[in-house]
Amino acid sequence: MLEHYVLFAAAEGRDADLETALAEFTDAIAGDCAALHEISWGRNINPSGLQRGFGHGCLARLDDDGLSQYWDHPAHQRLLGQLDELCSERFAMDHHSGIATAATNLETPTTRSTR
């Protein structure tokens, strides 16, 4: 599975608009992109990220080869068209998950499943 994280620093006075855009995006893409397993967004509560201005984040869990399907989805393209205006800064990080040792006991956090 591919995990696609994005952190957002809202432009001054645009926090509410960014939250609206993220909510509309996740509502539009959930259940409409076959490669998407789960998607969530929320306010950052981590002090180090907040000190750097990153107040919001989004996580999409995708099929290993599903990034292009997700990227090209009309809801994602709409969001991308809004982000330059809504954010002063943003960055993404992608990684393949599922690597753990037998001694690791990981619990999956509660997220919205799209399937």
TrEMBL record:
What InterPro entries does the database record attribute to this sequence?
Dabb (IPR013097), Dimeric_a/b-barrel (IPR011008)
Q: Where is the Stress-response A/B barrel domain?
A: 2-95
Can you tell which superkingdom this protein's organism belongs to? Answer: Bacteria
Q: Which SMART domains match?
A: Dabb
Protein name listed in UniProt: Stress-response A/B barrel domain-containing protein
